[in-house]
Amino acid sequence: TVHIIDFSRASSNPLNPLGLNLRKHIWEELDKALKNEEVTSVVLTGGKSGNFSAGADIKEFSQLNLVAAGTNIYSLVDVVEKIENFPKPVVAAISGVALGGGLEVALSSHYRIADKSGKFGLPEVNVGVIPGAGGTQRLPRLVSFQTALTMILTGKPIKAGKAKQSGLVDHITSNGESVLTSAMKWAEWAALMPLDDRRVGSLKIKEAHEEVEMIASVAGKRLPPPNKGGQGLRAAIEATKACTKPIKEGAAVELNLFLQTLAGEEGKAKRHAFFAVRKAQKPLGKPPSKHPLLQKSVASETVAVVGAGLMGSGICMVLLQAGFTVYLVDVYKQSLDKGVAFLKGTIQSYVQRGRMTEEIAAKMLKSLKPSQKLEDLAACSLVVEAVIEDMKIKKKIFSSLDKITSPSCIILSNTSTLDVDEMASAVSPQRQSLFAGWHFFSPAHIMKLVEIVSGKATSPSTICVLQSLTRRIGKIGVVVGNCDGFLGNRMLISYSGETALLLEEGAGSVPSIDKAFIDFGMAMGPLQMGDMAGLDIGYNIRKQRGWISGGSAARSKPKPARYPEVADVIVADYKRLGQKSGKGWYDYDKKIGKGRKPLPSKEVDALVRRYVKDGSIPLAGKEIIERVLFPLVNEGFKCLEEGIAQQPSDIDVVYLYGYGWPVYRGGPMYWADHQVGLEYLLSRLQAFAKEFPDTDYYKPSKLLETCVTMQVTVEQYYELGINKRQTAGLVSKL
């Protein structure tokens, strides 16, 4: 008979993570199969969940002894060795995901049968470690070394068809046959066949040693250095190269490198980022079960985006991809046509690159409804406003939408800084509970982050719907409170302002200041980022606040005592708006890097020198980072104090996915806690506050002072529940 080991019997999680209970279950079931003389073979299956296994339980990673071999706690290393050396054939029946440890279990089986839903991968590098239960040793023995190394270094899964083609699986089911039925047939056949040549660990790789070295060397040259997020990736190459050794020797090399990456700072930061996303996405309540936006099929649901500019078109693209029928509205025909052309071009490029089928593309284009009339939105269940950052224009649109749409329609603004409560005042009191901010980051169809902005009248139910909807459209939603700039852009005040002040002080040139941030690990420096976003955006915000010299607007907020005039002059007098105008802090040439490569500008260099005083001394990269990023972190503490952010890890998620913060530094708050140290952060802020007494963002946060006094990290302050005091902000309401 065939003995079936069903993972779902020991796991309530549909992904069947290989926690202690499941490992013990596999071990004990194998023992039963061994003792039962009637059992001729074994089938491993994910069972009713529809997934084989998504891999190790990452929560166990902090307990190093759980992964080491020979500790009598059914380590994954022991489990896969037991499967591979089992005297009766073991067949893995794979549907859904076989990732990480799940794939390692499949690799240790003697046969692998999959259905078309199968996905196979070793994504460990994404959480800062390498495969630790033979993945780097067995995978290259089945597939080519190049294929194995690519899978391990990218962490990207492959589909069943490619897995069969590469030799990873033996058979893919067809004609409606279930994977379990097929696997049982193979198990019966396997009982009649020799077993030794089916043990993957006993196989030799196809490539010669020299070829392995060459492939590994080429791959290594493309990786970041060890101190810039390359530690785990380089360990993965070294481990995979060890597949040329006998399996026991290679597995020992792999396990040693796994434990090194597990204990390393890079790995800890990446796992923090992994869990931070899940914490941020955890629903703050239960959304209405029958809400039209959350049904299994939304093809009949109509939503709308008002404003066909870059942001509006990007949001429209995301909603179309999620399956909605989407109205794209712009009163100006030229803008509307440009937005539609962008969508058609983007969809077509996805088809050409194999990211989308012709059928899906045609369906999306059919679901796109361009319009110049708000009146066409009467049947919409959600409308997103994405027009210019002008409060009067936005309020006029909201007032009209309030009258046109049904009472249950959710109305959202994609504003990046404006007051959500003031915008909500343009709709009826009954509607205000359905009004919120939905702040996408540019370009909206590419960037993963969305800030879900809760106004004072936004209902918890609306927030829960938006959390679920944001996840549905493939984005990472972080719930934040309403204030100037919300969470991410509020913290950026010092980032852009202080950078421009450093230029005026002669701390460095435009390229050298940006280099300090690139060396730190940011995707780009603040000045290059300003060029990409458009220097006119910040200029217009400052103009609205009445800060621009000679401007006519009444001053709505006090102008900072230290104010970088150069940031205004470069826009107003030099018309340098950034990449879109071909010149900003840098020059841009359409013939070089498609007009996106920053080139040092002599004109900007001369402009900056007008502000620099004689005798100015350039600052080292470390000092530049502290001057700009320490107040950014300080503002993060203040956002926590005020309830704008619910927990420190939410701030980390916003910066990791919205602002290019390096994942190996974990996010601004994690960096402050674990890599800077709060005591040092506080002492430097105190020194800066003394040097620049009129600059508010250098004044240390009370929460930071409290954490230093209590000798706890801000992460501990929240995890231990020390933050119990209620606020009038977001946390108390939700």
**Whole-number radius of gyration?**
28 Å
Largest sheet: 8 strands, mixed
Low-confidence stretches: 65-70, 726-731
* Helical proportion, percent range: 40-55%
Sum up the overall morphology in one term.
globular
* Largest sheet: spatial strand order: 11-10-9-12-13-14-15-16
Helix count equals 30
Average predicted local confidence, pLDDT: 93
Structural class: alpha/beta
Number of strands: 16
Features:
alpha/beta; five-stranded parallel sheet; single chain; eight-stranded mixed sheet; 30 helices; 734 residues
Descriptive account of the structure:
This protein has about 725 residues and is α/β, with parallel strands linked by helices. Helix content is about 45%, strand content about 10%. It has 30 helices and 16 strands. The strands form three sheets. It has an eight-stranded mixed sheet, with helices on both faces. α8 runs antiparallel to α9. The radius of gyration is 28 Å and the shape is globular. Residues about 65-70 and about 725-730 have low confidence and may be disordered.
